[in-house]
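Q: what does this look like with zinc ion bound?
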Amino acid sequence: MNRDLIASILPELVAIRRHLHRIAEIGLSEFETTRYIGDVLERWGFVLDRSYATTAIVASLQRRSSTKTVALRADMDALPILEETNLPYQSLNAGTMHACGHDGHVAMLLGAAYALSQDADFSGRVVFIFQPAEENFGGAKMMIEQGFLDHYPVDFLFALHNMPALETGKFSLRRGAMMASIDVVAVTITGRGGHGALPEQTADPVVAAGNIIVALQSIVARNVSPHDPAVITVGQIHGGSAATIIPDKVELEISLRALSPQVHALLRQRIEEVVVAQAQSLGTQASFDWKVGYPATINDDRAVDLARAAIRSTFGDDRLEDRAFAMMASEDCAFFLERIPGAYVFIGNGDSKPLHNAQYDFNDDILADGALFFCSIVEQALAK
Ligand SMILES: [Zn+2]
Ligand SMILES: [Zn+2]
């Protein structure tokens, strides 16, 4: 039934996906995107709630009397990347591109919304979340802070993300940590600048920064258990103006990722200790500006079992992969999954360019199965 309904609108879903690709917009600026999504949903009879996170759209369906609620979430923002695909539906907004496939996530969720709106075969409530600003501002966090979960008490939440290099249409998930937490810290090393020929009169923040970068590598190697994944990356270093001048300060920007709160706390503590000690050894000082990060994305056991049952019954055993490892990238769906049991699931995008690459494109061959996955979850979780 759902399969036939989705098949009947598949050409429209492809057209929707490509239109969204064309009008790609950055997080919290998804105005044209949400006008378009809203028009489609209203045409299908949905009443929209636009009260959250500037551009979020929430729609819901109630069948029979059960108050049990399943939320289905799609992110819808694009990235600041100049597209190099030369596709006929290439982004019209130069420098902004759907390079993470959120155009496809929206189209899959719309397909599910259409099919479920035509189908009365469940008991309870389905809440469709079209969420802004996954990539930059934590749209999920904003929605929660603005009371979304108070107005929509949700029992389970599910989200899909396409995954390049995973076989087309294969579903992949695991219990527990699915993706890592991320924090970013800006570090300023302040010394005493001077003439490059008179180092003895200075406190050199360049040498301090060099020692810090090397010393930071010992944290994952020597302080974290080999059984606990963690990553520390120094992604930026800025300082100085000429080869003959020792500058007053050097700035570093560091990202840290972990799967557990314990390792997360350990990384934060050790980074500060190592940076301060190294800076002091050269007579320089360190200061820290911690930016708000995303927590780890943790899948709930019962939700994973529901998703697995839905995938097996709808697509067969060979379409399900039990994922061995968490991915060390991060995802703001983590904020929802901190508060509500749920599962974040990958669907294979096949042999495509990687996410966040200027030549990436979402694979339209997985649109129908993504939509059907959401429908099947609802049937499993809200069985009559
Ligand atoms: Zn992304
Ligand atoms: Zn993404």
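The longest strand covers residues 181-190. The chain is about 35% helix and 25% strand.
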